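Late entry, written up from scratch paper. The run itself happened at the end of the previous shift, but nothing got recorded in the book at the time, so transcribing now.
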Amino acid sequence: MSKPESANGSEYGFEFIETPKAQAPTFEKAEDCGVPTTLVRILISPSALYPSLSSAEGRQFRTNSRNSLTITHRLQYPTIKNAPLPADGSGTESFSNLILFLALAGVPFYLSWKVGGGLKTTLFFALFTSVPLLASFWLVASIISPRKNDKARFPGRPVEYYLTFKNPADQAKYHGRSKIPMWTFFEMYFDGEVEFNGDCLEVLEYRHDWASFRFTYGLIKFFLTGMIPEVIMHTRSQGKFLASISAGNPGCTESDILFAR
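Output as recorded:
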């Protein structure tokens, strides 16, 4: 940030431009969410904003009436906007890696023991049980996992208060307190099947009131058949591409190198 303009406007050559006021929320309501939030204004001294100011310059800046800020002894800014619903979802404590590893190793070992097999039989069963066990663990754990913090109170509004579903089947499925999984919402939103009732950011700040964060079959399918193959194939393609660069491939352009990064 440049140094402030002096009282006569000729010493520093810096002119203050008033920041446009933020628009009033059209969706949010002033209500008690159960969690104390601060409305205290932030007080910043000129020397904190401009460390290079001398004492005389600081006093001159405080008496400057040309800027758009209210300056008495210190600069006074409004506080950073609080989230209207500072709620927490389930945490990583609910997804026990120990239980997951025991299931992934214990089930094929038990099946191998029942048929009188050994290590090779255990590995054979593991090939067929790992993916179903992983998906089942994610689904169950995401459904039964409690909130990490229960201090924030949800307004308890129906889903249709926040979202408008365009298909009658979706309207019948997601209404009242039947929350929509966030992954399902993303897919429907990008397909144009649902829209926000109001400002996008304001509605998303209330996401804990209308959306659930449980895993869905679509999310698991994307992870197993989309994300993992893409990471593997992309890594291989990057390796081949960078190898061709190191070999002095004349067909590689600067944009190709940036894309590979």
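The longest strand covers residues 42-44.
(Scratch paper discarded after transcription.)
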